[in-house]
Every structure is written in C-alpha cells, then in structure tokens.
Amino acid sequence: MSNIGIIIGREYMTRVKKKSFIILTILMPFLMVGIVAAPILLGSIKSDEKTEIAVIDSTGKYAPLFVEAQKADSTRADGYTFTVTGAPLNSFNTDESNVGAVVCITDDLLKNPQAVKIYSRSEVQNDLLRYVDDLLGKKVREDKVAAYGLPELEKIISDVEADFSVQTVKWGKDGKETFSSNEVAMMLGMLTALLIYMFVLSYGAMVMQGVMEEKTNRIVEVIVGSVRPFELMMGKIVGIMLVGITQMLVWLTMILSLSAILGISTAPSMPESELTAEAIAAAQQQPAVELLAALSGLPVTEIIIMFFLFFFGGYLLYSSFYAAIGAAVNSQEDSSQFMMPMVVVMVFSIYAAMGSIENTDGPLAFWASMFPLSSPIVMMVRLPFGVPLWQELLSLVILYATVFLFVWIAGRIYRVGILLYGKKPSLKEMIKWMRYK
Question: What is the mean pLDDT of residues 326-344?
Fold first, then answer.
C-alpha cells in the first residue's frame, strides 16, 4: 500500500505541474462562461440601422395597424421602419431599392387567410415574420369576434383561454407537504449523470494514454523493478482520478465566480418604466427561491452520497479496462478495436439515461440502473425521483463486485502486457495472460 501511495503522489504532482494542465485549467472556465455570456451580451447590442419595410394594402384595412403599432410599441418593431405605399410590387424587386422587404395584403384576411405575403430579396428574418403574424392575427381575431355580434364575447373567450398551472406537492414520511418540481429533478439527475459520463470518458482515456506513453518510452521497465505491476496500475488510476477532481473543482469555483461577476441571471425582461430597484430584486430572487424550494423537497444528501459512490465505482470500472488496453497495445491505432465496445456501452448508458428520465420506474430505467456498466449514469437520473433503498444497495453491490472483477482481470493483463512490445495482441492471447501465474 505504501508503494501505491508513492505512485499516486508522483502521478498527481507530475500532471498538475505540467504547463498544459495549468493553462487548460485556467482558460477553460473563461471559455465555458464566454460561450454562455457572449451570445447574451452580443444579443443585447442594438443596431442603429433600421430596415425599411414597405406595406402594400389593397384593402386599406390593415396598413394603418403597422403605423399605429410602431408608434405605440417601437421596441417590438426595433430594427424596422414600416412605410405604407401604393407603389406596385415589382418596383421593389430591384437592386436600387432601399426597401428590405414588402408586406403585401391583397384581400380581406377574414375571408381569405392566405392573402398576405412577405416579399424579400433574401430570407425573411424570423422577428419580422413573428411581428407581422402577431399584428395581423390579433386584428383577424378581433374581426371574427365582432362578426358574431354577441355582447361580451371577447371577455368570454378570454376567460375560456385563461391559463392555469398544475402544481406538484410531495408528501414526506411524516405527512408534511413540500414543494416539488419535475423540471428541477430532471435537471439535477441529468447534470450528475453527465458529470460521471464526461469524467469517466475523459480521464479513463487519460489513464490509457499515460500507460501507453510509459510503455513506449520503456520507463515502465525501470519502475516495475521496484513495485509490482498491480500497484503501478492502481497508483496511476487513483492519481489521475485525483487530478481530474482537482481540475473540476477549480473549474466549478472559477465558473461560479465569473458568473457572479458578470451578473448572469434568469430575471425576466421588463419595460424600462417597471425597472425599479425593488422590481429588479424581486425578479432576480424569484427563480432562486423556487429553485431552493424545489431542492429542499429532494433527497439532496442521499443524492450527494450516492453520486460519490457511483462516481468512484464507475471510474474504477472503466479506468481499469482502459489501463489494461494501454498495457496490451503499442500504439493509439491498435487500441481502437478494444476501446470501441466500451465506448458503445458508454453511449448506450447516456441514451438510456435520457430515455429513462420520463419514466424512472420503467423497465429500461430499472435494468439499466442494475447493469454495472450503465448503472453509474442511469441511477443518477432516477435518484431525484426517489428510489427504494434495496435497489440502490443492490445496484452498488453489483457495481463494486464487477469493479473488483474488472480490476483483477485488468491487473492480470497489465502485468504481462506492460512488458511486451512489437506484436499487437489478440483477444485470445489476452485471455491466456489472465491464466498465467
């Protein structure tokens, strides 16, 4: 065990002192926050240029709506200027025309809903299409209501179309009611599942790459003179795991700090007249209050404990396999045929998690959370929705029993393959290595 500790320390310190590790660890949070913040910041920049939109209305009924609506609410038509004209349509279909698009209405939309078209020399922008559709749609609706001649029909329709929301409430063991949110549970489950998936896939491959480098450079021949191959394998696996945990903790800290500095929030947009300090504070606090209320109804402590147990089990399971592959092959090309089955299983696991999130008690969710190669990912999706304790324990027992088996198999392959060079081993030969004493 003392040798494994020394190898873990060496593996950890060697990797965290690399310039590539330091640069990637520092720059990645800026990149991740930038990917989210840049579209928000750039999208808030308004252009001073306005595109002229010509309105041709042969009925004379709808053209005034564009002018009146633009005066009443210029923000919705931001970037466009609507001009009513009686010029022929083909006069705008020239390169000399300054008109960006033409809204052409040829008939009463109440009688002929297809009588409106937008002409443009390029693809029509979505915001312009939505604006015209909303404006004319509202007018057509008003005309239809008025055509019935029934008093207060508009009020009746508004009452019928009134939105309602279904709230979910969870009963505790003591009968206490707590607020719950299906969306928050789904988000938490997928987030923890993706963390395990990304960590295992990335750092498991790093284990294989590290073993292959030492084998190719013949450094391992010197090392195995002092330690057993199994100790070397486990030291490398645990050392790289600690490197990954360190990197992710630094990323999490920096991302949260940068997000707070940039003031990224989920507060809904409001008109400037309503942007008082109290309104802004209330808008910013509301999502946080709802999130905390939803999280308080979830078994957060249980999820955290299970996350670490499944996280360590899943990483040890796959990284031991990657270590065995790295010891057996001599180049990156040779590893492809052995890695493909495990990659397929990993991809199946994440798709099974996405398929199980709509029915966490279904057959797919249950069996995939018991199958050791997919249980670290799929079980995390189920936990926020509540899983019987016996299922959690059974899944962990199966997982760690498989981990011990994989580590034993990987150790047998590792001790032989790490000192073999030149020939690409076959699966049959690797099975023979397991039988060597």
Answer: 76
Beta-carbon contacts of 103 under 8 Å, excluding residues fewer than 6 positions away, are 53, 54, 55, 56, 66, 82, 116, 117, 118, 132
Which token pair is 198?
A: 């990304």
Angle between helices 375-382 and 300-328 (to 10 degrees): 170
Tokens found for residue 36: 């989210």
CA distance 51 to 46: 13
Strand partners, 168: 180
User: What angle do helix axes 427-435 and 389-417 make, rounded to 10 degrees?
Assistant: 90
Residues with Cβ < 8 Å from 406, sequence gap 6 or more? 316, 317, 320, 321
| Cα separations in angstroms, 334 against 5, 327, 337, 338, 347 | 31, 11, 7, 8, 21
Give me 412's structure tokens. Answer: 């047998």
User: What is the DSSP code string of 63-113?
Assistant: HHHHHHHHHH-TTTTTTEEEEE--S-GGGGSSTT--EEEEEEE-S-TTT-T
Rounded-to-integer distance, Cα 269 and Cα 260, Å: 19
Q: What is the DSSP string of 277-296?
A: HHHHHHHHHHHHHHHHHHHH
Q: Which pLDDT value is given to residue 33?
A: 75
Lowest mean pLDDT segment, chosen from 47-51, 221-225, 409-413: 221-225
Asked if residues 57 and 63 have their Cβ atoms less than 8 Å apart, the reply is: yes
Q: Which residues contact 400 (CB under 8 A, 6 or more apart)?
A: 313
Report the 10 Å Cβ neighbour count for 307: 18
Look up the pTM and report it: 0.68
Q: What is the pLDDT of residue 218?
A: 64
For the chain, how far is it from start to end, CA to CA, in angstroms? 22
Comparing CA positions, the residue from 229, 400, 222 lying closest to residue 324 is 229
User: How far are the Cα atoms of 2, 15, 16, 26 from residue 247, in angstroms, in the given order?
Assistant: 25, 11, 9, 9
What pLDDT digit, counting tens, does each position of 303-314 carry?
A: 889 999 999 999
| Alpha-carbon gap, residue 200 to 322, rounded angstroms | 10
- What are the φ and ψ backbone dihedral angles of 171, each rounded to 5 degrees? -90, 130
221-228's contacts with Cβ under 8 Å and 24+ in sequence apart are 221/419, 224/418, 224/419, 226/3, 227/3, 227/7, 228/3, 228/415
CA distance 269 to 374: 42
Q: 15's torsion region: left (phi>0), alpha (psi -120 to 50) or beta?
A: alpha
